[in-house]
Structure formats: structure tokens, C-alpha cells
Amino acid sequence: MNMSHLFTSIGNMFEGFSAGSTIGKVGIALGSILTAFYSPIAAILLCCFVFTAVDMFYGIKVACKQKKKITSGKSWKGTIIKLMDEFTIISLARLLEYAVLDDTGVFILTGGTAVIIGLTELWSILENLNTLNPNGPWRALGAFLKKKGEDYIGSEIDIDNADTSNETKNNN
């Protein structure tokens, strides 16, 4: 099979899928590029999105326990914005890794970014679980993560006096 026959076959395939329209051809090409770019990191994205959804679930449970008003629009809007932000950050890490570092196999930046996002969501889930049941087994895991975080950054993490300016703004 020679190369011209191969390209003719690919062109005919595009014609068939796109019904001959230019928009259809551009859509197929764009879809192929996006698939090639995101398919290696699909599992990483899915993990982050699952952590965010679980965090939202437990956040709603905490709000119910504390008898705070919950609006589905506000919960979903905040979660959708968080998911879009995570998608953007992970995509930028992938772009940097792929285009600038020319690394298509090992996902150090993409994976590292996803781990940071996942650990942040895990920390939030642990805080929510601790609010729901302060004597649960997650208390020890939270203390362990706090200790490891303090060792890593070389500074004490003061959770009780953390900046709650967002909570203050949301409660007013």
C-alpha cells in the first residue's frame, strides 16, 4: 500500500464521517486532537473530579448538620467552577509537559498537579468527616497528614486559626 492510497483512504473516511461539510471535518480533526491530548490523563482527571464530588457530598452533609441553608444552585455552581478550575490547571500542566518539555510518556507535572488537587480535596473531606463525627478514625489520618505537611514545609500548620475570610463573606 503506497502513501498516496493511504491518504486518499483517510480523506474518503473524513468525507464520509463529515458528510462533506467543512465544519464536520474541522470538528472531527479537533475531536481527534483533543482525544490524543486528554486520553493519557483521563484517569487523572476522573480521580480529581471524583474527589471533588465526594467533597461536595460531605460538605452538604455538614451544612445540613449545622442547619445552614443549602441552595442547589449555589452548591452546583461552586462545584462546577471548582471542576473547571481543576480541569484548567491539569490541562495547563499537561500542555507544559507536552509542548514545552516534549515529554509524552511520564506525567510528572500533570500527575503532581493532580496529587496536590487530590490531597487538598482529601483534606477537605477529612475536615467534613471530622465535623460530622469528631471521634471517627479519620481524626488520626488528619493528624498524620498535618504532621507530614508540617515536616514538608518546615512550619507549623495552624488549622484552628486558618483564614476563614471566605466563610465570613459567605455567612454575611
Please estimate the helix content: over 70%
Report the sheet-strand fraction. under 5%
Structural category: mainly alpha
Q: Helix count, per DSSP?
A: 7
Secondary-structure element series: HHHHHHH
Number of domains: 1
Mean pLDDT: 77
The largest pleated sheet is described as: none
Our measurement of the CA-to-CA distance between the termini, rounded to an integer number of angstroms, reads 71 Å
Flag low-confidence runs. 161-172
Radius of gyration, in Å, reads 23 Å
Strand elements, count:
0
Q: Give the overall silhouette.
A: elongated
How is the topology of this model organized?
Elements: H1 3-18, H2 22-38, H3 42-65, H4 72-100, H5 108-132, H6 138-153, H7 165-171
Helix pairs in contact: 1-2, 3-4, 3-5, 4-5, 5-6
Structural description of this entry:
There is one protein chain. This protein is an all-alpha fold. The chain has one domain (41-165). 78% of the residues lie in helices and 0% in strands. It has 7 helices and no strands. The chain has helices at 3-18, 22-38, 42-65, 72-100, 108-132, 138-153, 165-171. The longest helix has 29 residues, at 72-100. It is elongated. The chain starts with a helix and ends with a helix. Mean pLDDT is 77; it is low at 161-172.
